Amino acid sequence: MTRIKLCNRADVPTNGIIRIADVPGIDIPLAVADSDGRIFCIADLCSHQTASLSDGWVEDGCVECPLHESRFDLATGAPDVPPAREPIATFPVAVENGEVFLLERQP
Q1: Is 40 exposed, middle or buried (0-12, 13-18, 19+ CB in 10 A)?
Q2: pLDDT tens readout for residues 28-70
Q3: pTM reported for the whole predicted model
Q4: What domain range is 81 assigned to?
Q5: 10 φ/ψ angles, rounded to the nearest 5 degrees
Q6: How far is residue 103's CA from residue 105's CA, in Å, rounded to a whole number?
Q7: Structural domain tally of the chain?
């Protein structure tokens, strides 16, 4: 398993979210979120329309899209409020020594 550093843990505000624009081997922007002390990594684009989820709000394990208020579960990517109907991608992460790493599995 390889790891790619995304950010420092301190860069992610409590119950907040930040955008990670350039991740080697990933062709979309990602977002790293803190929900009650747990760290998650998701695709940064809403599945309904082109909106950056890192401009949204984190609450109760979900991120709310700033455009039309659809909410996505940070753990599964599933939407729970229309108009979004398609899930967003989620990515496994680890926090070690104050750093957040994207975990990539080898084929």
Answers
A1: buried
A2: 999 999 999 999 999 999 999 889 999 999 999 999 999 998 9
A3: 0.93
A4: 12-92
A5: -65, -15
A6: 7
A7: 1
Please report whether residue 97 resides in a domain: no
CATH of the domain at 33: 2.102.10.10
Q: Is 97 left (phi over 0), alpha (psi -120 to 50) or beta?
A: left
Q: Which residue bears the tokens 């729970």?
A: 80
In a domain, 7, yes or no: no
> Looking only at Cα atoms, what is the longest distance across the chain?
39
Distance CA 53, CA 102 (A): 18
CA distance 37 to 35: 5
Domain membership flag for residue 18? yes
Q: What is the amino acid identity at position 21?
A: A
Q: Which long-range contacts (CB under 8 A, 24 or more apart) does 33-39 make?
A: 33/58, 33/63, 33/74, 34/58, 35/59, 35/60, 35/61, 35/62, 35/74, 36/61, 38/74, 39/9, 39/12, 39/93, 39/95, 39/100
